[in-house]
Amino acid sequence: MMNFNLEKDFKSLCDLLATYQNVWNPEVMNSYPQSLEAYPSEWLTDITNLSEDIQWRIDAGISYNEIREPKLKNLLNNLKKLSTFQKLETSEVLFSDTDFFKMKEKKRHEIKNISGFLSQKTNLAKSCIDVGGGIGHLSRTLANKHEMSSLIIESNKEFCEIGQKVNKKLNIGKINYKSEPFNKNSTYHCGSNTFALGLHACGDLSSEIIEYSVNNCLQNILSFGCCYFKTKLENHCFLSSYGSKVDFNLSKYSLTLASRAHTGLTKKAFIKKKRVKSYRYALHLFLFHHLKQTEFKEVGESKFSLYEKDFSDYAAEKLNYLGIEKIEKQTLEDFFESKQTRKLIEAMFCANIIRWQFGRAIEKLILIDRALYLKESNYQIELGELFDENISPRNVGIFAKKLP
Ligand SMILES: C[S@@+](CC[C@H](N)C(=O)[O-])C[C@H]1O[C@@H](n2cnc3c(N)ncnc32)[C@H](O)[C@@H]1O
pTM of whole model > 0.85? Predict the structure, then answer.
């Protein structure tokens, strides 16, 4: 099924994102205090005054009904509307436990839906290159259920070795491995009657697979992006002629935003997140205002148990990590509890609730650009959701077929 609205969808998303680029592009904490100035104060007040339950419902994208600021409500509803994808059709394919060997629940779901999707297609190329194929679950399924052969190009040597052992154990032939980083200027296929696969190929890798396929006129492509922030470039590089006209950059921060799960946040996870963020923001504010260290500092990940302790315990550990002299417990607690700090933490958290709503729209812009590039390169394309977003958040696939 062709998707006829790509250009229109791309333009609408671009216009909306361009208007609010100061809101979503910089990270709130890293760009503090300028970041907060991008948010109309009445928006932040509105979200701040809502109950925790309603804040969670906004953050989880469940409902924006309780927002009182009409412009904000309209923006979030608009974003949601423009960020939706059509669903790709899949059909039921029977899988045995052996077919699912070593696959976790998430992988089983993806593989089942891809297999069901492909089983409806005719004239698929039977020879695949599976880039970033991991141990080879997808290639194994295609060999098993769709009589295809595959060359997996996978930079992780260990994955290749495990995959070879699994295939041997299950007596599956026709799968070869090349353990090296994919190079779009190299040659991996024999003839253009080839199917290029990239299931959750990280960052630029998805774009590179698509470029490789176009440059070599490959017959079919199936691409699912992920980890958009894993780019060697400063900003995201658009592929299509539409993309080349976009007059804003997608920074690493906004690419991280696009890589989040956009749905399924539970209330419990929201409350946990609020606690973690409040300590992290408070530490940043302490460094910024109290110690006059205005440069953003990475402080490393911590177990949640640290956030269950007092702020002063958390801060002491992080200050030590940063090589900063010990600060008195009471000074830290007083800073954390002060009205000014509480107000700033709340404003930063509410700003982020708004900012987080842009993630799916940014992801959609990236994916439409890839699809448009394929369309411009004489491919028939389908773009849509193939997985349940709650099971596999990077659930949007691009399927392409070379036109004569
Ligand atoms: C998210 S995993 C997906 C694995 C597999 N396609 C699947 O869905 O089960 C991404 C894989 O790409 C591999 N990878 C990352 N960069 C690569 C590159 N430049 N060339 C080849 N493989 C790469 C990683 O080692 C990893 O196995």
Answer: yes
